[in-house]
Design goal:
By secondary structure, this protein is of the alpha/beta class. It has 16 helices and 20 strands. It binds S-adenosyl-L-homocysteine (SAH).
């Protein structure tokens, strides 16, 4: 860590004036910052060049006089003429903090890049050295924070007295954490029912030894960290414990708080490190201990994610839970190959199914679905791909139906295969390692599979 030449503070301007000397674009830029506050913003300039008409400011169109600084909390000088010089002298004589636009060595203070979630503010400052970097960082932080955070903070503040009567210490803290992070409270707030939701949450926390434990079932997407939702990212940073599957990439698991506990319950094929019952028991135990648990699953938690069993266990134990959707593998595969899984006059529907352990009744059903033009996305089917294709043909699907296979969808190292159901049934192609989606349906022929390896061995192709 270096040493700072400035000290970041939140400076009170309520009931006072912010005086901006100058009437051009630079003055307008500072105005946009100043009006984020409740201070009276006063523009003084003999020449008003920029358009201040829709700014809530007082425009004084005449030369600067010392009395303009009466009651001023801050002064900005954005005037390079005699008025600017007079304002600088006057501000210094009165000891009012001064910012001279674009002249760092004359400034008492700099203006940071501001993230405004009033009453919450986040300022990113670079002592005037790297405003571009400060703005980039602001954009990243902006993306992490809900736009409703300020309103949630006010809601939390409005509950202060009622909370103090019913919850103490860590329990009160957990309550406030829920208010400012729970997607449900946020939705209620947006609908104008924030107070009712906050009161209901207070009842819940105050009743029956509520521990504050919560489990978030979070979809981590197909394996690229930038396919994670902003909500998933935010909750990951709240979590005390991250419980993740093997398919969740390390970079996503790393997004958790530095001091969060991380537990891998990876169920790679053949290595069952945790049974589903053990995972259910684990998240229930953590929830009962009052932990905030991020249960990270590949893709979307509700699609072949055994979420049903985990939800059931949480419900039975009265542990609050929330579900955060993720990009499911089949949709990542569709994106990778520009395949519209529904398409006018071609595919009127899209079915997510598992090839693993399917019985013949199910296969007959899917054969009919694929024959009717709908797109099938088969999960967990790579090791039984040829067999599944043969069985679908056996149940009446045409061997000519297009097939596309995406291994490692949504990741840089993805691999594609294309052909027909007949080609897949013939086997003979060694498919790459990694999880795969098998698409079956006419819509596949409308995607871009030009990079794909052909499933049929070339000696079978007639030129
Ligand atoms: N909940 C997950 C699915 C878990 S089941 C989701 O919504 O995507 C595991 C199966 O998902 C794998 O056998 C494979 O068929 C598929 N899968 C998961 N990640 C994948 C990926 N990146 N590429 C292709 N298939 C994937």
């Amino acid at each position: 860590m270096g040493e700072l030449n400035t000290f970041p503070v939140s400076y009170k301007v309520e009931g006072r004036r912010i005086v901006i000397v100058g009437g051009g674009e630079e003055a307008l830029n500072k105005t946009r910052l100043a009006i984020k506050t409740t201070a009276e913003v006063v523009i003084v300039s003999r020449q008003i060049e920029a358009d201040f008409s829709d700014q809530p400011v007082t425009v004084v169109a005449r030369p600067f006089t010392e009395s303009d600084l009466e009651g001023a909390a801050l002064v900005f000088v954005a005037d390079h003429g005699p008025d600017g010089d007079a304002a600088k002298l006057a501000a210094r004589a009165r000891g009012i903090p001064l910012n001279v636009v674009d002249v760092p060595h004359e400034c008492d203070f700099y203006t940071p890049a501001i993230i405004d979630r009033a009453p919450l503010s986040i300022a990113i400052a670079s002592e005037g050295d790297a405003p571009v970097l400060a703005r980039l960082i602001r954009a990243r932080i902006e993306a992490m924070l809900s736009p409703n955070l300020g309103a949630l903070a006010r809601l939390a503040g409005s509950m202060r007295h009622r909370v103090a009567e019913r919850l103490q210490g860590a329990r009160a803290r957990r309550y406030y954490e829920e208010i400012v992070t729970s997607p449900e409270i946020e939705v209620a707030l947006v609908r104008g029912q924030g107070t009712a939701a906050a009161e209901a949450a207070l009842d819940r926390h105050a009743d029956a030894g509520e521990t504050g434990g919560v489990v978030w079932l979070i979809g981590a997407g197909p394996g690229s960290e930038d396919l994670l939702t902003l909500r998933a990212q935010r909750l990951l940073q709240e979590a005390d414990v991250v419980v993740h599957d093997a398919l969740v990439p390390a970079a996503v698991v790393e997004m958790g708080r530095r001091d969060a506990e991380r537990i891998s319950v990876g169920k790679r094929k053949g290595h069952h490190s945790f049974t589903q019952a053990e995972i259910n028991a684990l998240i229930v135990r953590l929830g009962l201990e009052g932990k905030r648990v991020a249960r990270l699953k590949g893709g979307d938690p509700m699609v072949f994610g055994r979420a049903g069993e985990e939800i059931d266990a949480l419900r039975r134990n009265g542990i609050p839970f929330h579900i955060v959707p993720g990009v499911t593998a089949a949709l990542a595969a569709a994106a990778d190959t520009a395949t519209p899984v529904t398409l006018r006059n071609v595919s009127t529907g899209f079915v997510l199914a598992t090839a693993h352990g399917a019985n013949s009744g199910e296969l007959r059903h899917w054969a009919a679905i694929a024959s009717a033009g709908l797109t099938l996305a088969l999960y967990m089917g790579k090791s039984v791909a040829a067999e599944t294709a043969s069985r679908l043909i056996g149940e009446g699907a045409s061997p000519a139906i297009p097939v596309g296979l995406v291994v490692q969808a949504g990741r840089k190292d993805r691999l594609l295969y294309r052909g027909t159901l007949g080609d897949l049934a013939a086997g003979g192609v060694d498919l790459a390692d990694g999880p795969a989606i098998i698409f079956v349906g006419e819509s596949i022929a409308h995607g871009d599979w030009s990079e794909a390896i052909a499933l049929a061995r070339s000696e079978f192709r007639v030129a």
